[in-house]
UniProtKB/TrEMBL annotation:
Protein name in UniProt: starch synthase
Xref: InterPro entries: Glyco_trans_1
PANTHER family the record matches: GLYCOGEN SYNTHASE 2-RELATED, PTHR46083
Superkingdom of origin organism: Eukaryota
Transmembrane stretches, start-end: none
Domain Glycosyl transferase family: 59-227
SUPFAM superfamilies: UDP-Glycosyltransferase/glycogen phosphorylase
Catalysed reactions, semicolon-separated: [(1->4)-alpha-D-glucosyl](n) + ADP-alpha-D-glucose = [(1->4)-alpha-D-glucosyl](n+1) + ADP + H(+)
Keyword Transferase in annotation: yes
């Protein structure tokens, strides 16, 4: 049998033309991505106009992790809540954007928002906003997708389109689109960070490695950013795969 992944609308999700962004960018010139990151940091109170937050300098060397998702069990809620804590411990920043349909989940994340949103590292935004989604993908250094199961997944594809390096759990479509930077068996595919377990320790390890790359290998990080932006996850590419499958069936007949 053949499995074919979904695609994304690359006209709608295009950092070179996106009307929601304060600055445009593309794989050959990613300077606008830094502008988008600063815009989001200031807009959400994670940095001031002068680059200071609570007296501390906030620079591009602070990784920004973004998780845009429905807040349901499938998406790995316990891993999302743990990531918030671990990213803060690592000295990074994190923004969660999503809505919960379950009242208990909503209350849990409201409690987390009350706990974290007054600080300088984390913002939990319990809403859906198309405009903010575009800006967050553009601002993100890392897009987190820790799903328990995921038939395909679009967040990692959109994130890559906007130069956000994916950090995902190895399941379903996530395993088919994201390949670990430290997997030396297929270095040509390496485009993100992958963990297999559903435990916090597995997530910690992936976050630690991603932060290490970001802080200690800046040139390599920029190379990854440009690489993921050039990956073709468009519907045109997907359509071509369907045509190939149909043609193969016709030949066998």
């Amino acid at each position: 049998y053949s499995g074919i992944l979904n695609g994304i609308d690359t006209a709608m999700w295009n950092p070179a033309t996106d009307v929601f962004l304060p600055a445009k960018f593309h794989a050959n010139n990613i300077e606008g991505k830094r502008t988008c990151k600063r815009f989001v940091q200031v807009g959400l109170g994670l940095a001031s106009e002068k680059g200071l937050k609570n007296g501390n300098q906030v620079t591009d060397m602070v990784p920004l992790v973004v998780c845009i998702t429905r807040l349901v069990a499938q998406k790995g809620l316990h891993l999302i809540t743990h990531a918030i804590n671990h990213v803060e411990k690592l000295g990074g920043q994190m923004v969660v954007l999503g809505k919960a349909s379950d009242v208990r989940v909503e209350r849990e994340f409201e409690g987390l928002a009350n706990l974290y949103n007054q600080g300088s590292s984390v913002r939990i935004l319990l809403m859906y906003s198309e405009e903010l989604s575009h800006m967050l993908y553009a601002a993100a250094d890392i897009v987190l997708v820790p799903s328990i199961y995921e038939p395909c997944g679009l967040a990692q594809m959109i994130g890559m389109r906007y130069g956000a390096v994916p950090l995902v759990r190895k399941t379903g479509g996530l395993a088919d689109t994201v390949f670990d930077m430290d997997d030396h068996s297929q270095p040509e595919k390496a485009n993100g960070f992958v963990f297999e377990g559903i435990d916090e320790g597995s997530l910690n390890s992936a976050l630690d490695r991603a932060f290490s790359y970001y802080g200690e290998k800046p040139n390599e990080w920029i190379r990854i950013v440009r690489k993921v932006m050039e990956i073709d996850n468009s519907w045109s590419n997907t359509a071509g795969k369907y045509i190939n499958v149909y043609n193969s069936i016709r030949v066998r007949r």
